[in-house]
Amino acid sequence: MKSKNKKPKKRRVLGTLAALLLLAGGGYSLQQFGDGDSAQSSVAAEAEEKPSAEAPVKEGEPGEKPKTELIKETQQKVYTVLTDSGMGSGFLYNEFGMVVTNAHVVVGHTDVMLRNVDGKEFAGKVIGISDVEDIALIHVEAFEDEAPLVTEMEATAVGTEVIALGSPNGFENTASIGYLTGVDRDFSSDYQYEDIYQVDAQIAPGSSGGPLIDAESGRVIGINSLLYNDGNAIGFSIPLYSVTDSLDAWAEDPMEN
Predict the structure, then answer these.
(1) Is 225 a catalytic residue?
(2) By mean pLDDT, which of 50-54, 145-149, 175-179, 210-214 is the weakest?
(3) Dihedrals phi, psi of 42, to nearest 5 degrees
């Protein structure tokens, strides 16, 4: 179910382009990156800020925190999601112990484990999952009454500085800094991805389900979900405001397993 505050727009159907590149055998690939195979390459575990123009200040939002402090605070609410078949990422969505992740991270599973920044593991149960949108919701009883990450309920502008958090290539609790470089991107694979954000923050297999946050406000603006790899990887994130109706419905009325 889509948010009512979305505006009509001219679509840029990149899914077709991706399919053509794949069929052409040019070495391009579109990947969901929830499957956490063992790390095969060195990935920076700490974020490096890119020199660039400052992102515009959003009216009514608090002053910018130092990024080291913002990342440290956010990591407390970001988890590695573990299943029998792989791993991904997730983040605390509300005070009722609900954790958001991608559907492709937990598909086929009801009981999962979540590991926090301190290495402690907690049992979770998938209470909502879509076969159309790449989203799922996990209930973790141990997280009830904990303060969640703050979410952004409006669209975010191109040029906004962002931080992607998750467990790329198995390197847990990694943060990478970049910019939101595109909007209104559409893909179709196992799931339908509409109006998703394009980012240049580094993400990789294992990042799926992790939060994309506004580097100034600290609010979650998206769910990291896809990697378009043509030798210079581009990441894509589902805007959180566009899927909150489904997430809230599952939180209120869990699906039957």
Answers:
(1) no
(2) 50-54
(3) -75, 125
208 has catalytic annotation: yes
Q: Tell me how crowded residue 133 is: count the other CB atoms within 10 A of its CB.
A: 21
How far is the C-alpha of 102 from the C-alpha of 107, rounded, in Å? 9
Q: Which helix (H) or strand (E) holds 27?
A: none
Which among 130, 134, 167, 225 is annotated as catalytic?
134
pTM for this model (two decimals): 0.79
Is 134 a known active-site residue?
Answer: yes
Residue 249 burial (10 A CB sphere; 0-12, 13-18, 19+): middle
pLDDT of residue 39: 33
Distance CA 85, CA 193 (A): 23
| Catalytic position from the list 176, 208, 225, 237 | 208
Please tell me the number of Cα atoms within 13 Å of 13 on its side-chain side.
Answer: 6
Tokens of 125: 């149960």
What tokens does 15 get?
A: 């899914």
- Number of helices (H), then strands (E), belonging to the chain: the values are 4, 14
Q: pLDDT per residue over 11-60, tens digit each?
A: 444 443 343 222 222 333 456 655 543 333 222 333 333 333 333 333 33
User: For the chain, what percentages of helix, strand and coil (3-state, to nearest 5) are there?
Assistant: 15, 40, 45
